[in-house]
Amino acid sequence: MGDRLSRVESTGDSIAHALREDILAGRLSPGERLVEEAIAKRYGVSRVPVREALTRLQSEGFVSIVRYRGAAVSETLIQDSRELLQIRRGLEILAAQLAAQNRGGDVADKLAAIAENNPSDHDETPFHDLVATASGNRQLVEMLAHVNRRVQWGLGHNPEASLTDHRVLALAIVNGAVVQAGYLMDEHLQRDERYFGEKFDHPAE
């Protein structure tokens, strides 16, 4: 999406989405000021939808707003994300265990294809979304979607390691190995938490 929004997109929702993506991608740093006038000019809108967008982002934890000082990217974003990663791991472990109880549920064929390393037999749905769906718990799916969106900006990506983990996890789920599925998910997500700690607890000089 370009800087200037279309008339249809010129709403608080669309501006919040654009700013959120900038924060998640690291284009806006913790503590960086968000000036309403500059944002309005960038997107070709009035300050009203900008103010609505900033209020929404404040409710989501991305932005802090201080009276007489204005808005800024939250300086507690890193600590908040660290805590959310812990919550995420607990939810993902539960999802994996429930998915194993259901032996993959409605997406068992897709998980089986992953377990068999046969990508032609499954779609491009992210693996963790498949596990959440397989849990059969709609509230858990929604909670995970919210938490994952809040923490994705700080996570690394190791495709080879992830694919290996996903194959073993998928096999445990379709085989109904509840305890093993939970254990494997725990081990898998600890990698993300270690990466986050290495990136933000010991920043490069």
From TrEMBL:
Spell out the Pfam families in the cross-references. Answer: FCD, GntR
InterPro entries, alphabetized: GntR_C, TF_FadR/GntR_C, Tscrpt_reg_HTH_GntR, WH-like_DNA-bd_sf, WH_DNA-bd_sf
Q: Report the SUPFAM superfamilies cross-referenced here.
A: GntR ligand-binding domain-like, Winged helix' DNA-binding domain
Source species, please? Mycolicibacterium wolinskyi
The question of whether Transport is a record keyword is answered with no
PROSITE patterns noted in UniProt: HTH_GNTR
- Which protein, by its recorded name, is this? HTH gntR-type domain-containing protein
The reply to whether Transcription regulation figures as a keyword in the UniProt entry is yes
